[in-house]
Amino acid sequence: MDKVYKYCSAHGLNILRDLELKVTPPNQFNDPFEFAPKMFCSDPVLYASRNLEREPVLKVFYEMCRSDGQFLGSFHEFRELAKKEMPKWTRILAEAPQHTLPLLEKEFLDEVSKRFGILCLSQNRNSILMWGHYCNKTRGLVIGFDKSSEIFRQGKGLRPVDYIKERVNLDACWEGGSLEMANYESQIISSKSDDWSYEHEFRQIFALSSSSLTKKPLKDNDQNLGYFLSIPPEAIVSVTLGPRCSPELENEVREVLQKPCFSNVKLDRAVLHKNDFVIEIE
After folding, report:
1. What SS3 state is found at 66?
2. CA 147, CA 3: separation in Å to the nearest integer?
3. Angle at CA 193, nearest 5°, toward 125 and 24?
4. In Å, what is the CA distance from 195 to each residue of 165, 166, 261?
5. Single pTM value for the model
6. Domain limit, last residue, from 81, 109, 137
């Protein structure tokens, strides 16, 4: 059986109790480069003509013109002047697109995060770094799933992450729906810095509006809403307790796994190798 794993703190117990996995918008990830392309502008005049009337871009342009003394009036006056003298201001903006490209990069990430969320799993369960980072210093647990389960075939399904040395390029002049944008979107969804290659990550993208997701307050922060994917109990095939897992957490896990629906789940424990920097499963 091909398996994938979720590294968890003690909150992993909620996955077993509630039978659901959290789907996370990209702007909540701990990697600041997620969905953050390397932006460039192949045609500054075309870029300027498309974006000069967009208020967020216009405000950046306004501050730029104020700082170098090109315009000293109010933003309202600047907006009206830009409308009347569009060719002139388009030429000026075209000379310095780098001032507004960072704004477009942030807008892109925020827009994607309003629409999509990512489910992140791993191909292995014995990474020292991941046990330390995601399992409360090895006090948590790792839950194993049957990769062939129907839930992991929704949409484009689980796909392996490509670990790359350079950020994905995005031309500010590419139009939505173009072949260039389609290729870009495919790359940005499934790639990240090779500094993260130890994670051996698989990920699956979901539309946050999907009927397969449940929206509800997060248990550790009632002010924010989370998105959760329901999972059938038969998709869970193993639970691995951490080397420092407390007796209390172990007892709670064992109690949950007494349910008949978990009869197929194997419970084991991660231990430290006696001689090498290796985490073993016994």
Report:
1. helix
2. 5
3. 65
4. 8, 11, 39
5. 0.84
6. 109
Same domain, 67 and 175: no
127 and 181 inside one domain: yes
pLDDT digits over 12-34, tens only? 999 999 999 999 999 899 898 98
Sheet order of strands, 141-146 included: 159-160, 201-207, 116-122, 3-8, 141-146, 236-241, 266-272, 279-281
Which residue, among 4, 12, 7, 8, has the nearest Cα to 253 in the 3D structure? 12
CA count, 13 A, side-chain hemisphere, 16: 31
d(CA 203, CA 156) in angstroms, rounded, equals 10
Shared domain for 169 and 265, answered yes or no, is yes
Do 134 and 210 lie in a common domain? yes
Token match 């959290």: residue? 22
163-205 per-position pLDDT tens digit:
999 999 988 888 888 999 889 988 998 999 999 999 999 999 9
Measure the CA–CA gap between 143 and 114, rounded to whole angstroms.
28
DSSP symbols for 209-242: T-TTEEEEEETTEEEEEEEEEE--GGGEEEEEE-
**Domain boundary residue, one of 109, 130, 147:** 109
- Measured at the CA of 250, the angle between CA 200 and CA 267, to 5 degrees, comes to 55
Helical H segments across the chain, by residue range: 12-18, 44-51, 55-67, 75-84, 86-94, 101-115, 128-134, 179-189, 247-256
Residue 215's DSSP bridge partners are 227
